[in-house]
TrEMBL record:
Record field: compositional bias (Acidic residues): 271-286
Family: Belongs to the sulfotransferase 3 family.
Record protein name field: Uronyl 2-sulfotransferase
Any one Gene Ontology molecular-function term assigned to this protein's record: sulfotransferase activity
Residue numbers spanned by region Disordered: 268-293
Location of this chain's protein in the cell: Golgi apparatus membrane
InterPro entries assigned to the protein according to its UniProt record, in alphabetical order: Heparan_SO4_2-O-STrfase, P-loop_NTPase, Sulfotransferase
Origin species: Chrysolophus pictus
Topology with respect to the bilayer: Single-pass type II membrane protein
Length: 293
């Protein structure tokens, strides 16, 4: 998902004339106090208009006396995210860059070809907690307890979503995410959906699909779900908030009918089918309030 969005941002930055910085630091998400201060300083003093992307846990700019930036993010189904990452680390994608070797040059062959079911059922570190507690820490922040699977990190992540993010979208509904981004941040995202649907961009997007992915057994997936129960509680909370936002701005959900979920999955909230007519609050006033937070 992130690779698809970054491709779009590169096109948009040239089209609309904003500064785009995509960090090449992929595996340092928790920062020391000095590292936080340095990153916040660099972002805060950058030439505007400016958009910065990085895989890093939430940074509280106000804690260091800075103005909070406009935060946006996209999350996906936790098990699907885990599987994509598991195979991407080993085999990369279709871009032909051998980037799995670049990312994991020291990975032993027996580890690279480790069967996903063996990893899960035999409780390898990569397939068990805390490694599976992955999405919540990004929203919880830099506090050490944000890496501990539990209610504290979950509730803090929910609070940050509500108070510090303009939008947290769902990857499975990416077109609706792009529509809302175009509405909220037109200088950056105007025409993003038409670019995304362009056949030439689709060809580029297809190259970022992870290769050699296989589906674990139902038993293994059930174990994953049990280990990721906090991740799923957060995922469905964000999904519900995203659907409320879509309804507020009159977007219908155009989602293909999902495959029946195995009985070990918790049921997802009802999909939004019809927009709500809300005359009590002006849409633009609501958006202004978001920016003032």
């Amino acid at each position: 998902g992130s690779r698809t969005v970054v491709l779009l941002l590169r096109i948009l930055s040239e089209k609309h004339g904003f500064n785009l910085v995509t960090s090449d630091i992929h595996n340092k998400t928790r920062l020391t106090k000095n590292e936080q201060m340095e990153l916040i300083k660099n972002i805060s003093t950058a030439e505007q208009p400016y958009l910065f992307t990085r895989h890093v846990h939430f940074l509280n700019f106000s804690r260091f006396g800075g103005d909070q930036p406009v935060y946006i993010n996209i999350i996906r189904d936790p098990v699907n995210r885990f599987l994509s990452n598991y195979f991407f680390r080993r085999f990369g994608d279709w871009r032909g860059e051998q980037n799995h070797m670049i990312r994991t040059p020291s990975m032993r062959q027996e580890e690279r070809y480790l069967d996903i079911n063996v990893c899960i059922l035999e409780n390898y570190p990569e397939c068990s907690n805390p490694r599976l507690f992955y999405i919540i820490p990004y929203f919880c922040g830099q506090h050490p307890r944000c890496r501990e699977p539990g209610e504290w990190a979950l509730e803090r992540a929910k609070l940050n979503v509500n108070e510090n993010f303009l939008l947290v979208g769902i990857l499975e509904e990416l077109e609706d995410v792009l529509l809302l981004l175009e509405r909220f941040l037109p200088h950056y995202f105007k025409d993003v959906l038409s670019i995304y649907k362009n056949p030439e961009h689709r060809k580029l997007g297809n190259l970022t699909v992870t290769v050699k992915k296989t589906v674990p057994s139902p038993e293994a997936i059930q174990i994953l779900y049990q280990r990721m129960r906090y991740e799923y509680e957060f995922y469905y909370y964000v999904k519900e908030q995203f659907h409320l936002l879509k309804r507020k701005f009159g977007l219908k959900s155009h989602i293909r009918k999902p495959r029946p979920r195995p009985e070990f999955f918790i049921p997802s909230p009802l999909e939004t089918e019809e927009p709500i007519d809300d005359e009590e609050e002006d849409d633009e006033k609501w958006l202004e309030d978001i920016y003032k937070r």
